[in-house]
Specification:
Layout: E1 2-4, E2 11-14, E3 33-35, E4 38-39, H1 44-70, E5 78-82, H2 94-116, E6 121-125, H3 126-137, H4 141-153, H5 161-176
Parallel strand pairs: 5-6
Antiparallel strand pairs: 1-2, 3-4
Helix pairs in contact: 1-2, 3-5
């Protein structure tokens, strides 16, 4: 989600998706999964998939940021919304650990891509995002929801919870640059 403007005049510039896994490599979407709930064993196959994601994700991030720059968009930073920040090694349940490893991998690809372009990146846990936003933006949860709903009326494509969270993170980044 790429936003511009201020908290009183937000505008969506782009609401596309940055692919981090090669669509021609089906196992790259869930590299740590060998099957439903089963972990892929460490080894060449896993290493190849992880390397593929890092390579493909780096290229996708570079292309997206270059496209924005070429169109005259000056990016001030980025926000990443994640399900968990727990170190996957601390998770006893194998299946949950697999998902945490994948989340960590994809999050790191995005953060590294932003760092290579010298862009600041803030990361928020999904469950804390609205509380952070009410405090930082000085608005009630209801008011934030109203602004996001209005913003979504002009959004190209779907406007589901994930797009709203991305817009809220982008709004926090925009507001944060003024602090």
């Amino acid at each position: 989600m790429l936003l511009t403007g201020s908290d009183t005049s937000l505008r969506i510039v782009d609401s596309g998706t940055v692919a981090l896994a090669d669509p021609d490599e089906p196992d790259a979407r869930q590299p740590y999964h060998a099957g439903f709930g089963t972990a892929r064993e460490p080894g060449k196959a896993l290493s190849r998939l992880v390397a593929s994601i890092k390579r493909f994700g780096r290229r996708s991030m570079n292309e997206t940021l270059r496209r924005y720059a070429d169109s005259g968009v000056a990016i001030c930073g980025a926000g990443v919304v994640v399900g968990s920040l727990i170190d996957p090694r601390d998770i006893a349940n194998d299946h949950i650990r697999i998902h945490a490893l994948e989340g960590q991998l994809f999050r790191t690809v995005v953060q590294d891509g932003l760092a290579r372009h010298r862009l600041a990146c803030s990361t928020w846990r999904e469950r804390h995002l609205i509380q952070v936003a009410t405090k930082q933006l000085g608005r009630s949860e209801r008011r934030l929801q109203d602004v996001l709903a209005a913003l979504g009326r002009d959004a190209p494509g779907p406007w589901r919870a994930e797009q709203k969270r991305a817009a809220l993170a982008a709004w926090l980044v925009l507001e944060g640059r003024k602090l």
